[in-house]
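Notes, p. 3: input format for complexes.
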Amino acid sequence: MDALAAMQALATAEGRTDPYPWYERLRAAGPVLALGEGFYVVTGYQQADRVLRDPSFLATDAAVLDRTLPGWRASAAWRWLGRTMLWRNPPDHGRLRRLAGSAFTARRTAQLRPDVVRLVDGLIDGMAGPDPVDFMDAFAFPLPVAVICALLGVPESDRDWFRPRAHDLTLALEVFAGDPDSMGRADTAAVELEDYFVGLLAHRRAHPGDDMLSDLLAAGAAGQIGGAEMVAHLALLLVAGFETTTNLLGNGLAALLARPDLTAELRAHPELAGAYVEEMLRYDPPVQATSRHAGQDLALDGVPLPAGAEVMVLLAAAARDPGRYARPDRFDPHRDPVPSLSFGAGAHYCLGAPLARLEAQVAFPLLLRRLPGLRLAGPALRRDRLGFRGFAALPIIA
Ligand code: HEM
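Output follows (398 residues plus protoporphyrin IX containing FE):
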């Protein structure tokens, strides 16, 4: 099977459910693959790391989109993305990132630990009992949502309204984004979330508080961020907090419960939580891919890339690169601490990484300590997504 056929397999429901064999075939074909006119796929760790760190590779900003996707402004979801830091380059990227940065530093995040412990304990209280519960609904979703809502100053009571919209909005970020049904749903979600945040900002302007919404309004008054940018920025932070940490918790628990030796070890040694969470991130990354565009004519691992070329970076393929990780298909929290690219790298390195790590590092040891009989209660159901990999349902007996 050639690389193109493996790529096509990834676009099927079967490929999305278990993409790792297809990543392996792609990697076997080469760390950098030319798969179409101006389209390249990177599967090797070193090469992925270079693309993410080298400023000659640009994020997909409005100038790039004008060249590569004329008409993109007709999509509310792409307009939203184009205003966020994720899809911006210097100097706007740095300006927007600095505005959020102070709330997400390792030090500020560490101060949230007692709140996270309290939230985790409360959710475990709600799950404990003889009946099966869905871990995704009962724990993996509510925990990150409660944390990010508190940080942003967004009412947690609106979370069930957000949930389907956050899901739909991120369809615009999917690996094979662009089909009319998905984009229609993403566009509707973008418009509804935009309206929501416009209303929330207006309310907060009248009633300032000690949260990021109020800080952003102050930055807006000082001319550091525009009104439409502010709305996009808030929607990004909300969605980034929803669709990723939830899947780290679900993917991580599934990996753990599949191996009684691991469950027993982490239960006996909660101090290993840091290493376990890093391995969970590597083994089954919640964000499987991202992309960049060549800002000029470049060569990557000997493959010439013309200016403007689109480069899909398969983070999850790089995470199983045998040149970087011995026995990459095995979950091994004791491997040499090798950083993975699961939070990205370089200028766009995940802003929420300290927060996601904190939540997972608190959650797993507490779940194991407080729930001695924790086990799977039935078959887990994967979501039909490739880019944001997770479970639709993960039944457990707590
Ligand atoms: C396990 C959980 C998470 C994973 C796996 C994850 C993954 C990633 C990755 C791979 C990127 C880089 C994308 C690129 O380079 O194109 C990224 C960027 C980002 N993440 Fe996360 N993320 C997680 C949680 C969070 C949380 C909780 C937040 C915060 C609310 C957050 C906010 C962001 C933001 C704002 C960016 C864009 C940074 C920039 O463009 O400079 N993420 N994330």
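Residues 3-385 form a domain with the Cytochrome p450 fold (CATH 1.10.630.10).
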